[in-house]
């Protein structure tokens, strides 16, 4: 459960008893003067170590993706990190698989193309993108699917007959 609690804050209540109760919600991004919380919920992924990763953009297309992480067992998020993305970003997504963390977003400055990148994270630098890929055509929506065998990106393209959904594995 992710709650957008107001401008520039996102809260994530944590449960230690399988969801029967939730403790005090940790806030993320409250120290940002550049990025506001999104129109929709931030992207969330939990990696193999149990760390929680949140990423979002503001209500308007942004040149940066905001990112925080919370190690397993911690009650606090890391400092807010922001990473520049080519073509701006909306609709950010995250997925964690055995190979690591992946992010995807729509790049509105380039006709809403879907972009995807493997990412590395650390407490000091935050999120670092590697080998940004641009998917062919324009996209109206994106989704990341993560599993034991890896991550796939799905994107929807409008066609005269309706829509086409394309899936591509992320190397």
Tell me how many strands there are: 13
Secondary-structure class? mainly beta
Mean pLDDT over all positions: 76
Q: Please state the overall shape, judged from the principal axes of the Cα atoms.
A: globular
User: Low-confidence runs (pLDDT<50, min 5 residues)?
Assistant: 1-8, 31-39
Distance between the termini: 30 Å
What characterizes the major β-sheet? 7 strands, antiparallel
Strand order of the largest sheet: 4-5-6-7-8-9-10
Oligomer: single chain
Order of helices and strands: EEEEEEEEEEEEE
Share of residues in helices: under 10%
How much β-strand is present in the residues? Answer: over 45%
List the total number of helices. Answer: 0
Rounded to an integer in angstroms, the radius of gyration calculated over CA atoms is 16 Å
Account of the protein in words:
It is a single chain. This protein has 171 residues and is mainly beta. The chain is 0% helix and 58% strand. It is built from no helices and 13 strands. The strands form three sheets. A seven-stranded antiparallel beta sheet has the order 4-5-6-7-8-9-10, with no helix packed on it. It has a three-stranded antiparallel beta sheet with strand order 1-2-3, with no helix packed on it. The protein has a three-stranded antiparallel beta sheet with strand order 11-12-13, with no helix packed on it. Strand 4 (43-46) and strand 5 form a beta hairpin. It is globular and about 50 Å long. It starts with a strand and ends with a strand. Residues 1-8 and 31-39 have low confidence and may be disordered.
